[in-house]
Specification:
The complex is a heterotrimer. By secondary structure, chain A is α/β, with parallel strands linked by helices. Chain A is built from nine helices and ten strands. In chain A, a hairpin with a 2-residue loop joins strand 4 and strand 5. The longest helix of chain A is centred in the middle third of the chain and has 14 residues. By secondary structure, chain B is mostly helical. In chain B, the strands form two sheets. In chain B, strands 1-2 form a two-stranded antiparallel ribbon. Chain B has a two-stranded antiparallel ribbon with strand order 3-4. In chain B, a hairpin with a 2-residue loop joins strand 3 and strand 4. In chain B, helix 4 runs antiparallel to helix 5. Chain C is 72% helix and 3% strand. Classes of the chains: A alpha/beta, B mainly alpha, C mainly alpha. Chains B and C meet through helix 6, helix 7, helix 12, helix 14 and helix 17 of B and helix 3, helix 4, helix 9, helix 12 and helix 13 of C.
Chain lengths: 249, 429, 316
């Protein structure tokens, strides 16, 4: 069975600056995979390459064995891959409920319909409420998303990502800027919603990484210098030197 | 029309109950001629209704879709031209063409051209889209003077609507008969456009407006969403154009040019693009300004321009936005507390306005008058523009009014904050 | 044929360089501030009207100097007290604002000067034919226009590439935040550039007014063409604006001289001309007649096949 995501000889340069220099990575189905690395290693760029926000300079991106290099983002999403954003990327003028609902209209096959009344689509509305309950935001359904607190917006961000039922989920620093308890809540949420799915997570908080991940890849200067289960990574001297060694944990 | 959806709380109401507002509007609109029955009033109402449809269609682009178009008159005008051709054809060959359906020809033309021009202009929203729309607008406007067979050249196209097949005995020879038709089309179009905004496509149009990147990452092609909105907007603009053709029985290059595109932008924006009802308000206000003001002053367009710029700078949510700002205060029953502060600020502001208007009118009069004239009729008085008296009085009013209003403004702000605080304290949020 | 080509070249050059004077300011403002100034052509119109009023009182030459300065001040005021406040609402709001200003300027012109075309003409000493070729005269005034335009172009080039302020402007175009952190007063630079771009537009109006006519409609006519120029040339590229201005200037000037239509083409290859069918207008329209829409057609073609324009690097 082919891997959920496969990156083959991925290169990305902006002008003459090479950001990603030959990444080869296979993320298996059902795996919880974390990508860590120092700032500037290229983690966000890697995400943007996988989700087609950027087109690789060379190399391939495969989704369940199918080559999707350079395909438009909406096509990749329709194939079952959803991502969240490091900088909160929601629909600020819509309510929390509508934000989530937008996340699942396509997935529930309503597409470009201009003949359905969205307020009377029971299946859509029920599922939206369920997602809101999943992320613990049901009480705030009618609040305009722009008025939420930071942590609530991050939760909503995740909510929109999972609403469509994608089975490959990419989360970009889901606990960034959160305090201890918020982080713990988010970790629980992520664990719950990725039960039978493939999760790829970029994170800086090592406790989150080591607590959640089945496998970890370390990205340094655009290259994966190590990839394996948490214990292996913890003990890897190259990783320690490049990254973990600086952490006073 | 509320933007907050109450999930699963909408019961199984009947079609009639759900759209109660619209039925009421329909009845009111049909009763209007009883109140305003002079020939001029009907003519004004006709123009107003056509502009309402046109402005609402424009807001599908700007308010709903975030697309600023400087060339929306293209679809309005082309709709008018095609509808006119249909009428001419029906008159010439006497085939069965019930008049009430002719705007559909305009709508269809608007839809098709929306597809043609939208196919390459909707890749991006924002400044690029605006410029493309300007270029296409000018291209079509210039073309209409070149391809005279289609457009009638400078004289335009004309046709007699009364020659069409009578509709249940009505041949629409009288203005008020046309009014009922236009008003019916207005309610229908507005209802359809409102319903459109509540469909998956309509919701995603809002989403693409606010965050096109995110919309793509939930599975929607931003270009496709914009294109479909563009086509729908073209359709309704074409309907308005078809009604224009019926009402005035002439379509010229003015119907399709930059001035008309500018007017619809003005209307929608002054009314308030963030609200569904905004363009309706804008169309009504603009039509009133145009038809009433022009009787009293030659520079009415200047005042409209001033209002528009002031709206952009100080009240970007438009007239409807200002009204809606008062809604929470009204709901809390605290509106009365604002009455006095408004009066305190409003009176000097009014004085200032009178002063400014006076100065402008005098300036215009003095700059452009025929030689030998020095008496200007203003505010129901005869004023000698040659003597400094009037100038001084108006200047004093303008400057004094402004300074006084500015001095009293904090009182209004304080009253406002007090009223709003009461709402919060009353646990209404 | 040759005389037609030579004079069309000369006239096209005059018109094209005029377009460049207008589009240079517009593209500079756009590159630096991301604002597309819809009112740019209106400032051009103001320049013509100011110069007209000055010329009726004091003469043409004082107008040439004073009018652009006045327009530059107006532009700076618009930026300082208008645009700066609207900036926080986003680019679309800025565009709507400048559209409103354009409308207001047009109405103001009609308020003060009325709706007729003004009798604004060049100075007497330039009112003679500079040379005559094949019986056609080339007026000295047009040569004067050429001289001014070329002079401005060279001055722009020198200022932008060799002076300190020019380097600051170039830097601010691409990296306004860094430039601010280096201690330069970026808002002041913005106001200055806006004012300067406006003055350029005003100068174009001063010299073009006598030639192209001074009336309230002059802004609308040229305004759209200027937008086409910078879309075709590429948003944010001064060289692109130069290239596109000349290209479009030449296209429009040469088109006017071509009296052939599709029907003529058909006749040449033996197909009988279509004079009465539904599309007969299309076939009988001469190139001269469709001259006004050629720039827009070019814009559409560029937008479909090369959306960044001829020399543009920036996506908006």
């Amino acid at each position: 069975m082919s891997a959920a995501i496969e990156l083959v000889d991925l290169y990305k340069s902006f002008g003459s600056t090479a950001i990603i220099r030959g990444v080869n990575l296979a993320i298996e189905r059902g795996e919880r995979h974390a990508i860590i690395g120092p700032n500037g290693a290229g983690k966000s760029t890697l995400y943007n390459l996988i989700t087609s926000k950027y087109v690789p300079t060379s190399g391939h991106v495969r989704l369940r064995g199918e080559d999707v290099t350079g395909h438009p983002p909406y096509e990749i999403n329709r194939k079952g891959l959803a991502r969240s954003f490091q900088v909160t990327n929601i629909f600020p003028r819509m309510t929390v409920f509508e934000n989530v609902r937008c996340g699942l209209l396509w997935a529930m096959n309503y597409r470009y319909s201009f003949w359905h009344d969205v307020d009377h689509l029971d299946d859509v509305n029920e599922r939206s409420m369920k997602v809101l309950e999943d992320i613990g935001m049901a009480a705030r359904a009618a609040v305009p998303a722009g008025a939420l607190s930071y942590a609530e917006q991050r939760a909503l961000e995740i909510g929109i990502t999972i609403a469509g039922g994608a089975d490959i989920i990419l989360l970009d620093e889901p606990t960034a800027g959160m305090n201890r308890s918020e982080t713990a809540q988010t970790v629980e949420l992520v664990r719950r919603i990725t039960e039978d799915k493939t999760l790829v997570m970029v994170e800086h908080d090592m406790s989150v990484v080591f607590g959640l991940a089945d496998r970890i890849s370390v990205l340094v200067y655009g290259e994966v210098i190590a990839s394996g289960p948490p214990d292996e990574i913890r003990g890897n001297p190259a990783v320690r030197e490049a990254y973990l060694g600086e952490e006073a944990d | 029309m509320a933007a907050v959806a109450t999930p699963a709380a909408m019961g199984r109401k009947s079609f009639l109950r759900r759209n109660a507002v619209w039925w009421v509007a329909l009845v009111l609109v049909m009763l209007l001629p009883q109140v305003a029955h002079s020939g001029t009033s009907i003519a004004v109402l006709n123009q107003m209704c056509i502009m309402v449809i046109f402005s609402l269609s424009y807001n599908m682009l700007l308010g709903q879709g975030g697309m600023l178009s400087f060339g929306h008159a293209v679809y309005f005008g082309l709709g008018g031209y095609f509808a006119m051709h249909l009428i001419q054809l029906a008159n010439a060959t006497h085939f069965f063409m019930p008049l009430p359906l002719t705007p559909l020809a305009g709508g269809l033309a608007g839809l098709v051209f929306g597809l043609i021009f939208g196919s390459f202009s909707t890749s991006r929203a924002g400044t690029v889209f605006a410029m493309i729309s300007l270029g296409i607008g000018e291209m079509i406007a210039s073309s209409s003077l070149i391809f005279t067979k289609f457009s009638g050249g400078e004289e335009g196209l004309t046709a007699d609507r009364t020659d069409l097949t009578p509709f249940f005995g009505v041949n629409f020879g009288r203005d008020y008969q046309v009014y009922y038709l236009i008003a019916a089309w207005m309610i229908l179009s507005a209802w359809l456009m409102y319903r459109f905004s509540r469909t998956p496509l309509g919701r995603m149009a809002n989403a693409v407006r606010d965050n096109p990147e995110r919309a793509e990452f939930v599975g929607y092609s931003q270009k496709r969403v914009r294109l479909l909105s563009f086509m729908a907007a073209g359709f309704f603009a074409g309907i308005a154009g078809g009604l224009f053709a019926l009402n005035y029985e002439i379509v010229t290059d003015e119907t399709v040019n930059l001035t008309t595109s500018g007017v619809v932008l003005l209307q929608a924006y002054i009314g308030g693009v963030g609200f569904f009802a905004g363009p309706i308000v804008g169309a009504v206000v603009y039509t009133l300004l145009q038809t009433l003001l022009s009787n009293y002053t030659e520079i009415w367009a200047f005042y409209v321009g001033l209002i528009f710029v002031a709206t952009v700078m100080y009240a970007p949510t438009g007239l409807t936005g200002i009204i809606m700002m008062h809604q929470p205060i009204w709901r809390a029953g605290r509106l009365r507390s604002l009455a006095l502060p408004y009066l305190q600020v409003g009176a000097p502001a009014l004085a200032c306005a009178i002063g400014v208007i006076g100065l402008l009118e005098l300036l215009h009069f003095v700059s452009v008058r025929a030689v030998g004239q020095s008496t200007k009729h203003l505010f129901w008085m005869s004023i000698n523009a040659g003597r400094p008296t009037a100038w001084i009085v108006f200047s004093v009013l303008a400057v004094g009014g402004f300074l006084l209003a500015r001095r009293l403004a904090p009182k209004l702000v304080a009253a406002w904050e007090a009223a709003s605080a009461d709402i919060h304290a009353g646990g209404r949020r | 044929m040759l005389e037609l080509t030579v004079f069309s070249l000369l006239n096209g050059l005059v018109y094209g360089l005029l377009l460049f004077m207008l589009s240079a300011g517009l593209t500079l403002i756009f590159s630096m501030m991301g604002v597309l100034n819809f009112a740019h052509a209106s400032l051009y119109m103001l320049g013509a009207y100011f110069a007209y009023s000055i010329s009726t009182k004091v003469g043409f030459w004082p107008g040439l100097v004073v009018a652009p300065v006045l327009v530059g001040v107006v532009g700076a005021l618009i930026e300082r007290y208008g645009l700066r406040n609207v900036h926080r609402y986003g680019h679309v709001a800025e565009l709507i604002f400048t559209f409103g200003i354009a409308f207001l300027i047009e109405e103001t012109v009609q308020l003060i000067w009325g709706k007729q075309t003004m009798d604004y003409h060049g100075p007497k000493i330039l009112d003679f034919p500079l040379f005559e070729l094949w019986g056609i005269e080339f007026p000295a005034y047009k040569a004067f226009m050429l001289a001014i335009s070329i002079g401005i172009f060279i001055a722009l080039l020198v200022v932008l590439t060799r002076t300190r302020i020019g380097l600051i402007i170039q830097a601010a175009i691409s990296h306004p935040n860094q430039v601010a952190m280096l201690g330069h007063n970026v808002p002041l630079v913005f106001t200055g550039v806006f004012g300067f771009g406006s003055a350029l537009a005003g100068l174009a109006g001063v010299i073009a007014g006598p030639e192209l006519g001074t009336s309230p409609g002059m802004a609308a006519v040229l305004g759209s063409i200027v937008f086409v120029v910078i879309v075709v040339g590429g948003l944010g590229s001064l060289w692109g604006a130069f290239l596109a201005s000349l290209l479009i200037g030449m296209i429009q000037t040469f088109a006017v001289a071509i009296d052939y239509s599709l029907n003529d083409l058909f006749a040449a290859i033996g197909i009988p001309p279509d004079k009465t069918g539904a599309l007969s207008d299309l076939y009988s329209a001469t190139v001269a007649q469709i001259g006004p829409i050629l720039p827009y057609l070019l814009m559409v073609v560029i937008l479909i096949f090369r959306p960044t324009g001829l020399l543009g690097k920036r996506e908006v």
